[in-house]
């Protein structure tokens, strides 16, 4: 999908609640000044820019996405962050590189058979005690929900600390690396 079409579609299908959902997600990430953050499936950088505001000039936010057009849009609109082409299943970062990994509406795009690998990658790039925060569709009626998100995180080496709705169709699962 083209970035401008994606932005339009995301705005329309959120019924005007996109900003509120992402502002709430950024709060739930609890990013702190100076932290290193990874936004997996960053798309156009909508969450990335909110995370950068939280970590301040002393922190760093990197966004990864498999779509080059999305990344090119993000680079133009969020010049204070780093962007790299990559999938959740093969993150090009050293073990323990980040304090926080966030992902918004991206994991359901990973084929179900590859999701366990993606969760292991999220765990690998987090420092011990690091956090992961994932916003995904709530329920399976949408055809894109991630099966047993808390269970998959636990199987990958996380302790789930919270699983709650953000809005009617969105949920947020937070976990800590064991």
Automatic annotation (TrEMBL):
What InterPro entries does UniProt report for this protein, alphabetically?
A: Methyltransf_25 (IPR041698), Methyltransf_Superfamily (IPR050508), SAM-dependent_MTases_sf (IPR029063)
Keywords, in A-Z order? Methyltransferase, Transferase
Q: Does the keyword Ribosomal protein apply?
A: no
User: EC number(s) per UniProt?
Assistant: 2.1.1.-
Q: Which GO terms describe its biological process?
A: methylation
UniProt enzyme class: transferase
The residues covered by the Methyltransferase domain are 37-130
List, in alphabetical order, the Gene Ontology terms for molecular function in this entry: methyltransferase activity
Which Pfam families does the record cross-reference, listed alphabetically? Methyltransf_25 (PF13649)
State the superkingdom: Bacteria
Q: What is this protein called?
A: Class I SAM-dependent methyltransferase
Question: To which species is this protein native?
Answer: Kribbella deserti
């Amino acid at each position: 999908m083209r970035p401008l079409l994606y932005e339009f579609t995301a705005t329309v299908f959120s019924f005007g609640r996109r900003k509120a959902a992402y502002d709430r997600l950024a709060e739930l990430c609890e990013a702190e000044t100076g932290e290193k953050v990874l936004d997996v499936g960053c798309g156009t950088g909508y969450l990335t820019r909110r995370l950068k505001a939280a970590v301040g000039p002393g922190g760093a936010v990197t966004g990864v996405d498999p779509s080059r057009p999305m990344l090119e849009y993000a680079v133009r609109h969020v010049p204070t962050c780093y962007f790299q082409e990559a999938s959740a299943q093969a993150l090009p970062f050293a073990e323990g590189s980040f304090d926080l990994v966030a992902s918004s509406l991206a994991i359901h795009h990973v084929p179900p058979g590859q999701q366990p690998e993606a969760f292991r990658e999220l765990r690998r790039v987090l420092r011990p005690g690091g956090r992961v925060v994932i916003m995904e569709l709530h329920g399976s009626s949408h055809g894109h929900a991630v099966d047993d998100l808390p269970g998959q995180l636990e199987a990958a080496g996380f302790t789930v600390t919270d699983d709650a709705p953000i809005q009617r169709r969105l949920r947020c699962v937070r976990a800590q690396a064991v």
